[in-house]
Amino acid sequence: MPSSPGSPPDGSYTVIAGFSGHKPYPAAGIVSMHGAAPLMMREVLSAELRGQRRVNDLMLGPVINHSRPGGDPDRLTADQVGEAAVALTRTPELTGERIVLDTVDDLKRELGRMNA
Fold it and tell me: Quick check: 44 and 83 in contact, CB under 8 A?
């Protein structure tokens, strides 16, 4: 359904990034620089769009997935990352935000805020 006059257009952008662009790790300089670029891109896009579209980022810690099936049970699964991304797109009040999802507890807190 199209937006009504005077309201922001429907749709949003979500940048999904890992902690390497936000948190320094020894001997990972190149990876950190590569990870930081999309985060700055999101901030610039937010400034350029000035509310015309919602732009957010999901900052992820380690994720349990097919290539990395084991790990700490407090880590997010790929399905949980998808759940968070969908919830974020359905929460029009959130824009220009960095949603930090390092643990399952972070996910629960943010989903509570998104679904409130």
Answer: no
